[in-house]
Amino acid sequence: xxxxxxxxxxxxxxxxxxxxxxxxxxxxxxxxxxxxxxxxxxxxxxxxxxxxxxxxxxxxxxxxxxxxxxxxxxxxxxxxxxxxxxxxxxxxxxxxxxxxxxxxxxxxxxxxxxxxxxxxxx
Length: 122
Ligand code: HEC
Hints:
The chain has five helices and no strands. By secondary structure, it is mainly α. The chain folds into two domains: about 1-40; about 45-115, no CATH class. The termini are far apart. It binds heme C.
């Protein structure tokens, strides 16, 4: 192969390589959006379980241990988000819920994502 032809090939190949590279970068940028749509938390699938595992020990159907309300049904949890600062209490370092200490960041983020998505029930 003569040097000129070799150079032409090289240029062509690098053009293809950078096109593929740029295309993949674009795809990565798009992906998070697509994933989020598929992963919107719902009350039934995600939130109910978090409440049952961390909150209803006190915020039961009949609240115990001085808890002022229940966090069992969909409407009760929505009401606590809207009127009782549920999101700031689960993130509070001075008066956290549960009182024994904040839940891990993943669980708290799931609740926040659910609230930001408009609190879908199912
Ligand atoms: C060990 C018992 C206990 C657990 C577990 C518990 N709470 Fe509470 N919660 C209380 C008590 C007692 C109060 C009232 C005193 C206060 O506001 O700190 C309260 C208050 C609250 C309030 C404020 C209510 C208002 O009207 O001001 C919110 C919101 C709340 N809890 C949410 C939660 C959530 C969400 C969880 C689980 C992630 C949880 N709690 C777990 C006992 C508990």
